[in-house]
């Protein structure tokens, strides 16, 4: 065991370099665990990429890649299945060629090689434009080292592939070279938290005398695994990688050709697009419906709410994300179905027809990644919502969710800021969430034998109300009733639900609750005061965190339990009242226990006032939850007779 630990710590220095294809060393084969991360199921020993431009018959981009992976556990066998995506559009395509691979195993002190057969490589189609070459390396075992190399030749000379330095397993060495002709001016977009080990630029030789090649090298070493954590958007937001944006092309003797454009160009192009701006101008087919609705409502806000409800009730979302319509607003209206753009561009057009100041807002969803504020890259968006301003107040609307109240966006769309587009204006707008609000009051009569019975009332607002209504709609009241159970000790009656269809009002849930005691009078009664609502698990377990914590929404959760205690019983022990606050008004926890006569009240209130906490605030947030859990675990002790 000692040998393995020493060997593991030596791994970085032994392997931290570009591997040569077909040349494995004994240390790589003998390695059985990775000491820096013993949970690692596999590690990338070396990942090397080299991109160059070819001017033979036509301009092409050629990328060669060689990756070496060590398999440490059976759970890491999936890393022996390689999937190389490639893109095809019209007459242009990417071609994957020169695929080769070898699996190395150490058996009885001898290195055994198992080569990838050409017949083991097959092609899959994932969408209209995306395909992949896929293969699984042969004879993979715990301890195997796999070598894989391939070449991608691309006709898309204006789009360099990104290079990922970081994956979900540790990477000892990742090195990427790019020789870019001086004709092409690229902007390099670095992302992630791991620093570059090396970043060099030189002048490289060129086959064309008039052409200068700029040779770039980026290297990272000892890159930790990219691990999912609770409360993040998408893990790709935090991945260490480099992307390339073509700014301009300058051919000899020609004027510079701008490629990246700016936000003015993006706005103009979108407003002229048949699949975006043109959809807002096709209003003839719903004029009479909008006119009728206008006559029924006196105020602009009431009118907007009515049109929003009409679109929600009429349209059925097909679940597809995009900011571009796939059909005309008329056809979407007639078929009553469409993607998010079909539906929300229709909503925007109807609000505009009603004389309201409505505009589309481009969004990158939480799972898609951060919006591209630093560069005008419209393809980084994958969603669109509607913005309407009424009497100086802004509202954001998404008509894809029938149960979503006016002025609320689905959590999937809450990703910082969105890009608002008008004919002659564009700006970023905050995608502000409403509060996740839960207020639970439980009134219980306690008997000397420990029996309890009473009533509970839950008031749900904001995103909590939406989640409850969605559960009721998807699963029915019977299954929802099961979710109200507070553990094996409590029985819950059939709930009575109020305001289920009144989306702008708080949802009320009332039900009976009871628990059985031990059947005999007790001198001492122990109470878990929050009746099944105590928090018992801290979602923040690691000592340090690199990524921000993103709850998505603010939180306001209040739990009040009122006990009527038996005559002759008094509090012997009780949790002390406490207030815990996060810095910069980030949040607050209040816990109160108070008695008046034979009534005992316990109050717990948790406020999270902002949805995002940065890494430097993590320690405070973790301790905040530690104190909540500790306080919620404390019991109340009732004693018959006089208190101590």
TrEMBL record:
Residues 1-16 form the signal peptide. This is DUF3857 domain-containing protein. InterPro entries: DUF3857, Papain-like_cys_pep_sf, Transglutaminase-like. Gene3D superfamilies: 2.60.120.1130, 2.60.40.3140, 3.10.620.30. Keywords: Signal. Residues 63-226 form the DUF3857 domain. Residues 294-368 form the Transglutaminase-like domain.
């Amino acid at each position: 065991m000692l040998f393995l630990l020493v060997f593991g710590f030596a791994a970085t220095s032994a392997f931290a370099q570009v591997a040569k294809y077909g040349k494995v060393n004994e240390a790589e084969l003998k390695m059985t665990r990775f000491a820096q991360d013993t949970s690692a199921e596999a590690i990338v020993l070396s990942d090397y990429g080299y991109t160059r431009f070819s001017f033979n018959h036509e301009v092409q981009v050629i990328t060669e890649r060689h990756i070496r992976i060590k398999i440490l556990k059976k759970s890491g066998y999936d890393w022996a299945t390689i999937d190389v995506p490639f893109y095809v559009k019209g007459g242009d395509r990417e071609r994957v060629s020169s695929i080769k691979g070898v699996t190395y195993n150490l058996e009885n002190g001898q290195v055994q090689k198992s080569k990838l057969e050409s017949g083991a490589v097959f092609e899959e189609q994932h969408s209209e434009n995306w395909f992949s070459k896929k293969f699984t390396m042969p004879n993979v075992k715990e301890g195997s080292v796999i070598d894989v190399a391939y070449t991608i030749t691309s006709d898309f000379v204006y789009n360099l592939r990104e290079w990922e330095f970081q994956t979900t397993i540790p990477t000892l060495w990742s090195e990427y070279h790019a020789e870019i002709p001086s004709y092409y001016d690229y902007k390099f977009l670095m992302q992630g938290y791991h620093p570059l080990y090396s970043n060099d630029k030189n002048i490289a030789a060129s086959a064309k005398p008039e052409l200068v090649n700029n040779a770039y090298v980026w290297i990272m070493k000892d890159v930790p695994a990219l691990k999912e954590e609770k409360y993040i958007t998408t893990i790709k937001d935090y991945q260490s990688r480099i992307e390339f944006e073509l700014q301009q092309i300058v051919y000899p003797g020609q004027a510079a050709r701008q490629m990246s454009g700016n936000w003015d160009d993006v706005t103009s192009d979108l407003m002229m697009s048949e699949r975006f701006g043109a959809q807002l101008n096709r209003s003839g087919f719903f004029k009479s419906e909008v006119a009728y609705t206008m006559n029924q409502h006196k105020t602009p806000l009431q009118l907007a709410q009515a049109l929003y409800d009409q679109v929600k009730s009429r349209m059925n979302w097909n679940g597809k994300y995009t900011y571009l319509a796939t059909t005309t607003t008329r056809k979407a209206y007639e078929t009553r179905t469409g993607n998010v753009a079909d539906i929300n561009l229709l909503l925007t057009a109807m609000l505009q027809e009603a004389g309201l100041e409505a505009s589309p807002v481009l969004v990158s969803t939480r799972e898609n990644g951060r919006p591209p504020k630093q560069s005008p890259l419209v393809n980084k968006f994958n969603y669109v919502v509607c913005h309407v301003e009424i009497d100086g107040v802004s509202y954001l609307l998404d008509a894809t969710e029938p149960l979503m109240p006016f002025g609320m966006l689905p959590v999937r769309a809450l990703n910082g800021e969105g890009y608002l587009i008008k004919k002659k204006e564009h700006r970023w707008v905050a995608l502000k969430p409403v509060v996740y609000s839960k207020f639970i009051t439980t009134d219980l009569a306690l008997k000397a034998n420990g029996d309890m019975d009473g009533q509970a009332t839950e008031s749900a607002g904001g995103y909590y109300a939406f989640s409850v209504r969605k559960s009721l709609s998807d699963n029915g009241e019977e299954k929802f009733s099961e979710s109200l159970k507070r553990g094996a000790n409590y029985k819950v009656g059939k709930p009575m639900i109020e305001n289920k269809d009144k989306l702008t009002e708080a949802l009320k849930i009332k039900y009976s609750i009871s628990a059985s005691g031990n059947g005999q009078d007790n001198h001492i009664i122990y109470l878990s005061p929050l009746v099944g609502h105590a928090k018992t698990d801290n979602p923040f377990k690691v000592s340090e965190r690199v990524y921000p914590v993103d709850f998505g929404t603010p939180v306001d959760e209040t739990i009040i339990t009122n006990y009527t205690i038996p005559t002759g019983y008094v509090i012997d022990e009780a949790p002390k009242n406490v207030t815990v606050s996060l810095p910069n008004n980030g949040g607050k926890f209040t816990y109160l226990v108070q008695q008046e006569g034979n009534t005992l009240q316990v109050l717990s209130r948790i406020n999270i006032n902002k949805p995002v906490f940065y890494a430097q605030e993590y320690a405070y947030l973790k301790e905040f939850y530690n104190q909540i859990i500790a306080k919620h675990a404390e019991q109340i002790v009732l004693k018959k007779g006089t208190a101590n």
